[in-house]
Amino acid sequence: MPVHKPFNQSNYDANDASGKEVVTQFLTNKGLDVQENSNKYGIDLIANGTTYNGKSFVDIPIEVERRNIWTDTFPFPTVHVPERKTKFLSKYMLYAVVNSTYDRVMFCSSDIIKQFIPIEVPNKSIQAGEYFYDVPLKHWKVYYI
Fewer beta carbons within 10 angstroms: which end of the chain, N or C? Predict the structure, then answer.
């Protein structure tokens, strides 16, 4: 059984609302209607509308994460999506990562993320037993805000 990082209230307070606000503003500026999910244990945002390139969005779930290690160029060749987010990957959704300075966001779809088998990645929070989808950076679309 994989180990999951325990909930950290101060980390949540420092990153959750601000990350969701950045993604909401970015997508709203692209013509989408974005609402925060009322289920605090569910996916973060729900987007609807038609983007500038004509692609329709109907109830597209979006999970948002802020990465304090990312300022200008993402510092690693892969992006780690926590295995604990698997519950959100069963249906189509977008995973959004916001950088530390709030001027970049990148997206990857669940269809891509699910193609990768979670691998164990020791990190500063969990020394052993935590798994992540190790998604190459080439599968993420980075936008400057």
Answer: N
Query: Is 1 among the domain residues?
Result: no
Mean pLDDT per 10-residue interval, the chain, length 145 residues? 69 80 95 92 92 75 95 96 94 96 97 95 71 97 95
DSSP one-letter string for the chain:
----PPP-HHHHHHHHHHHHHHHHHHHHHTTEEEEE-S-TTS-SEEEEEE-TTS-EEEEEEEEEEEETT-SSS-SSSEEEEEGGGGGGSSS--EEEEEETTSSEEEEEEHHHHTTS--EE---SS-SSS-EEEEEEGGGSEEEE-
Query: Residue 54: what pLDDT?
Result: 67
Q: Please give the tally of structural domains in the chain.
A: 1
Q: Both tokens of residue 93?
A: 């959704």
Question: Which structural domain, as residue segments, surrounds residue 33?
Answer: 9-144
> Is 40 a member of any domain?
yes
- The answer to whether position 90 is within a domain reads yes
Q: Is 2 a member of any domain?
A: no
